Amino acid sequence: MLIIWEQQIRYDPPGDGNCQFSAIADQLSRFAIHRSPQTFRSEIIIDLRRNPVNRLGVHLSNFVDNNNFMRYLRQMQKDGNYGDHITLQRVSEMYNMQMIVYSTLGPQATRVISPTGRNEPNLPNLYLGHFAEGHGDHYVSLEALDNDIWLESEGDIWLERERDVGLEIELDSDIGLEKNGDGGGGRLEEMVT
Fold first, then answer.
1. Buried b (16+ CB within 10 A) or exposed e, 30-58
2. Rounded CA gap, 67 and 65, in Å?
3. Is 19 labeled as catalytic in the residue annotation?
4. Where is the OTU domain (predicted)?
5. Each residue's pLDDT tens digit in the chain (193 positions)?
6. Is 63 exposed, middle or buried (0-12, 13-18, 19+ CB in 10 A)?
7. Among 12, 47, 135, 164, which one carries the catalytic annotation?
8. DSSP secondary structure string for all residues of 45-74
9. Which residues lie across from 142 on neighbouring strands?
10. What domains are there in the chain, each with its CATH number?
11. Whose CB has fewer CB within 10 Å in the chain, the N or C terminal residue?
12. Pick the catalytic residue: 16, 65, 79, 174?
């Protein structure tokens, strides 16, 4: 399968520690789900308090510092505290949507987050960009430049389909990266200037 990856930043939230919640709120608005980042953060914290286990039944205290989940929740509910892998997973579960998180660390760091923990091609996708530590530690909302065309082989038949995934980021120098993983190969171009 050949996929052409090209996305642009749809919304670049302020770098105030609320960027993950702001970027996700922007993506949810594509599906007529409108929340302020503050309301969105509160809803996630309430859900985590009510359901402190993951999809496998493991308590989330196993994934936070010192296994202190109540302290984690108190900190996470404060304005300006960075969202993390726990909040991303919970959003996916709450809204039954899949998140594609593209990283400035390259395609090997791109993550698919879904309610089941597997790639779910039939779920709606939210597209986020993550500037990793050392690159700004920041989340942005992404959108395709155009509907990308991808070709899928079914035996000897090539089908042309539209898909809107990928990423283009501006940083410090020019590099080109190959995308590999579920769904085949493709190109993730990062323009680092």
1. eeeeeeebeebbeebbeebeeeeebeeee
2. 5
3. yes
4. 8-145
5. 223 346 789 999 999 999 999 999 999 999 999 999 999 999 999 999 999 999 899 999 999 999 999 999 999 999 999 999 999 999 999 999 999 999 888 888 889 999 998 888 899 999 999 998 888 899 999 987 665 433 333 443 333 344 444 433 333 333 222 222 333 222 333 322 2
6. middle
7. 135
8. HHHHHH--B-TTS-BGGGGSGGG-HHHHHH
9. 9
10. 9-147 (3.90.70.80)
11. C
12. 16
Does 130 participate in catalysis according to the annotation? Answer: no
What is the total residue count of the chain?
193
Lookup result for tokens 């984690």: 72
Amino acid identity for residue 85 in this structure? H
Two tokens, residue 108: 């090997």
Active site residue 34: no
Q: Find the helix packing angle between 19-29 and 85-95, rounded to 10°.
A: 20
- 């690159």: which residue's tokens? 135
